[in-house]
Amino acid sequence: MYRTSLLKQTARPSVRVSTRQFSVLNNQVRKWSEIPLAPPDKILGISEAYNKDANTSKINLGVGAYRDNSGKPIIFPSVKEAEKILLASEVEKEYTGITGSKKFQNAVKGFVFNNSGKDVNGQQLIEQNRIVTAQTISGTGSLRVIGDFLNRFYTNKKLLVPKPTWANHVAVFKDAGLEPEFYAYYETSKNDLDFANLKKSLSSQPDGSIVLLHACCHNPTGMDLTPEQWEEVLAIVQEKNFYPLVDMAYQGFASGNPYKDIGLIRRLNELVVQNKLKSYALCQSFAKNMGLYGERTGSISIITESAEASQAIESQLKKLIRPIYSSPPIHGSKIVEIIFDEQHNLLNSWLQDLDKVVGRLNTVRSKLYENLDKSSYNWDHLLKQRGMFVYTGLSAEQVIKLRNDYSVYATEDGRFSISGINDNNVEYLANAINEVVKQ
Amino acid sequence: MTVTSKFNQLVREEPDPIVKTMSLYAQDPSPNKVDVSIGVYKSESGGPYLFPCVAEAKKILAANDPGHNYTNMQGIPEFLEGARRAAFGEKYASEGKLASLQTISGTGALHMAFLFLREAGYTNYYLGVPSWSNYVSMVEHVGGKVTTFNHYREDTKDVDFDSVVATLESAPADSVFIFQTCCHNPTGADYTQEQWTKIAELVKQRSIIPLLDTAYQGFSSGDKEKDAWAIRHFYELGIEFVVSQSFSKNLGLYGERVGAMHAVVQDKEFVPNAQSTLVALFRSECSFAPAFGARVASIVFQSPELQKVWREDVANITKRLKSVRQKVLERLTKLQTPGTWDNVIKQEGLFWYSGLTPAQNDRLISKHSVYSTSIGRVNIAGLSDANINYFCDAVDEVVRAIN
Ligand SMILES: Cc1ncc(COP(=O)(O)O)c(C=O)c1O
Ligand SMILES: Cc1ncc(COP(=O)(O)O)c(C=O)c1O
User: Any chain B CB within 8 A of the CB of A316?
Assistant: First the structure.
């Protein structure tokens, strides 16, 4: 038996009260035939409706995965090559460690924190054993693990997330026992960041809160902070003694180069080295930037105060993960290991593959912009946004009209996945939007 | 500015004991060292074993590369279909009474089962001990409570069935009982069909919810169908229960994390409720289960030829395990090692619950470089013709030295 000597034992809830609205925890039921139907996932609902639509011009703008110009999913050529190497050499499938292999952990550390040798602060933190990295079940799993971890060991439950944010953030953190609350981020009527209110709402929150920051390509708005704005936010973080939790699901999709998209991380490392910040955490996913979606490959990293703290935190992470799923899946993580292993010379081809993907997204973005009617609506925000999405600013009504009249399927918050757009349908889409906006 | 420590209450946790054992083994320079600790099947030559059906399925998958896209939140349909058939049999799998979810292997299946049961209002657990070391922390992790009873009698080195019956008779209604369907970890002591029949009777009578954990299906009888007898019997009797299923061992897919959870809902009308609840719960844990291993398994499930190869693989493994057990007994008998050892051939699966004491186990490590777990659980698959005699001689020595 795996016994513990946990000091903060009392802080751990013995029974978590479910936050899910259909929870029946408090009024016990007879057998599970009385569990009510859970609401379906919105995006999946859209895909289903799309699949049933007979209109040959139909467009699906709900997908969260990349598609090429012909509307097909792609396999990154570098990933395919790495997989070939893996399949040719793999002779068994035995368990990896609870937090993944050292090789994977080091690959992530070198890639994200050390910026492949170009970040002195990150390098120092790695050398001082102040970064604990664990492989997780992609980005979602890393958010969940850090949620559980903070719920157990951090002094505050309050977690601030931008409004709007990725649809699943609130559910994941609530389920982990934290108390998510929104901070101002975006002004829908102006289709722009609302930076003044962002600062104001963060400043009004209690000291020591956890604050979730999107590293780049904010989902769903695509609107990121400038380095100067980050500076102001990080000043508030220090002043209020917030705990920064960074979610990085789209590293590389802002600039086309993953090493350029980690400005926030580099700045945080600097603050830690300067002892202005004790600790922060990063949730990272290879789902999008390697196209490894279904293989569930990602990580959680916690930057700690000391090598001793790292040991304690690592042991607690293991203790936390063991009763959830024992160990993470190896296929995707071995592909990642191979890509970062110098002997295979694949890193550059991966960077090129990724750049090409992002290049297409940006081309499509400008083409859409070109074809939109600027006389009835200001579309300039499109050009400021980054990543896989266009946050149109269209109302739910307009989105529904697009669906009903033009077979254009998107979520009602007006977020369009660029993946669904290509040379063949961009004009049809722009025309549909123009018509709907005019009305 | 001054900043206070965010996590200063944290202390360093002891590693899982088996992890410690494994790292000691790795550091041991002895050429004779024997690893019989972690529950992973080893080939006759002592190396890792890739199932021939899996090797073939991997080739087929590579030739028809489906890429790495997001799958279904419920799981890959062909995988779930095959998983249901493996556990419940062709007929019951297709009756529409199952809500199923692809999970992060068997551990993830158990975790989802615990969450699902909590969602339905059940948090009171019963567990026969000794048992797999992860159950208790897993239940506690989701806020449940575990009461233990004896699964095993040290004197008869067999199932303590009186204790099972007495506990079933006295546990409050709506308690969840965790049972392992076959190849009990760590004791290797399974229930007979008569005993399962009695258990099922009591489960019905007393409104108990069984959670059947099946991590070694096929390794008991060598026949996956036979080893699923309890699951099918419970189903037949109209019991509502949960199954957690792992393909780590019986397809050798350990690190790929391939498993499933099934809830048997006898009133079909409510299957969608259970199903949607599972998906909603899973979405805030990790969204999707990993694709690769499940795709490999699906290819095996769907191909009649590979199914056949799989059946043979499992039968061969079981045959080897049984022959190793026989040889251990023969050697210990020949050595006239003090004590009775026929439990080694009575027990099923990967493990021999040897009855060696912690002190004897320590000596096995320190004097003989034989690494088993501190509770005396020996992974039979770690033995082969090359080291059976060495191993048995070591056991003989420690038994004579410490008693
Ligand atoms: C902001 C954000 N975080 C995390 C994730 C998690 O993705 P995954 O679990 O597939 O890595 C996503 C996926 O869409 C996302 O948009
Ligand atoms: C009894 C039992 N249940 C479940 C498991 C889960 O294993 P996995 O998560 O690798 O499928 C194991 C593994 O050792 C086990 O022994």
Answer: yes
| Residue to mutate (ligand 1; options A42, A142, A285; most atoms within 8 A of CB) | A285
Region B236-251 average pLDDT: 97
Structure tokens at B215: 């991590």
Under CATH, what is the fold of the domain B17-49+316-401?
Answer: Aspartate Aminotransferase, domain 1 (3.90.1150)
Which of these is catalytic: A247, A261, A353, A413?
A247
What is the C-alpha separation between A223 and B69, in angstroms, rounded?
26
B118 and A18 within 8 Å at the Cβ level: the answer is: yes
Q: Nearest bound ligand to CA A166?
A: 1
Interface size between A and B, measured as CB pairs under 8 A: 285
| Dihedral pair phi/psi, residue B132, rounded to 5° | -55, 135
Q: Indicate which residue of B160, B190, B213, B313 is catalytic.
A: B213
Pick from A15, A39, A65: CB nearest B123:
A15
Q: Which fold has domain A44-75+349-438?
A: Aspartate Aminotransferase, domain 1 (3.90.1150)
Q: Is B377 on the interface with A (CB under 8 A)?
A: no
A177-212, pLDDT tens digit by residue?
999 999 999 999 999 999 999 999 999 999 999 999
- The domains of chain B are located at 17-49+316-401, 70-302
Higher-pLDDT residue of A193, B4: A193
ipTM of the complex in this document: 0.92
- Is the pTM higher than 0.90? yes
Query: In this model, does residue A2 exceed pLDDT 70?
Result: no
Residue matched to tokens 């999405």: A389
Which has the closest alpha carbon to A146: A326, A320, A18? A320
**pLDDT at residue A16 tops 70:** no
Please say if B249 is a catalytic residue: yes
Choose between A44 and A434: higher pLDDT. Answer: A434
Answer yes or no: are the C-beta atoms of A29 and B122 closer than 8 Å.
Answer: no
Residues A208 and A245 sit within 8 Å (Cβ to Cβ): no
Question: d(Cα A2, Cα A409) in Å, to the nearest integer?
Answer: 50
> Under CATH, to which class is B70-302 assigned?
alpha beta
Pocket flag, ligand 2, residue B250 (CB < 6 Å):
no
Q: Which residues contact B364 (CB under 8 A, 6 or more apart)?
A: B356, B370, B371, B372, B394, B395, B398
Q: Can you tell me the mean pLDDT for A34-61?
A: 83
Give the pLDDT of residue B4.
56
